[in-house]
Design brief:
alpha/beta, Rossmann fold, 5 helices
Length: 155
């Protein structure tokens, strides 16, 4: 998998928001593959190639994680904490993409090490524009951190 093929990981439990995000990306011209995790546990399983994702090459991480906060089984703050606690994913860009307007969520998100915090716009047009800008920044303008070599190899 080359750098240009690395997917976006969308962690979102609301099927309507998943559909809206995928349609917004398409309309914004973002053609990068999108993997969807429906809860926090599934997101970590994907990232660490465990559980149902045990066959996935764990060193091939997504280019960015778009993380909702209000998730079943494990909330977004705990997912972020675990991402930042592991050397393999410590530098992985994480954008909190949430409808939460709680100031405590904003503070916890940045305090936990998110790279960006975006409140989901209510209108479709504003959401498409936000998706376009997210894609432009994280997929075009941002310089990625160097990948962590797979365990047992020298980097």
């Amino acid at each position: 998998m080359t750098g240009s093929e690395r997917p976006i990981l969308l962690v979102e439990d609301n099927p309507d928001d998943v559909d809206l995000t995928l349609r917004a990306f398409k309309r914004a011209g973002i053609t990068r593959p999108v993997e969807v995790a429906r809860d926090g546990v599934e997101a970590l399983d994907y990232l660490f190639a465990q559980g149902t994702f045990a066959g996935r090459a764990g060193h091939q991480l997504p280019v960015v994680v778009l993380l909702d906060l209000k998730l079943p089984r494990m909330d977004g703050h705990e997912v972020l904490r675990r991402i930042r606690a592991d050397a393999r994913t410590r530098l992985l860009p994480v954008v909190i993409l949430t409808s939460s307007v709680e100031e405590t969520d904003l503070m916890r998100g940045y305090g936990g090490g998110c790279n960006s915090y975006v409140r989901k716009p209510v209108s479709y047009t504003e959401f498409v524009e936000a998706a376009r800008q997210l894609g432009l920044y994280w997929l075009v303008l941002n310089h990625e951190a160097p990948p962590v070599p797979p365990p047992g190899t020298r980097g």
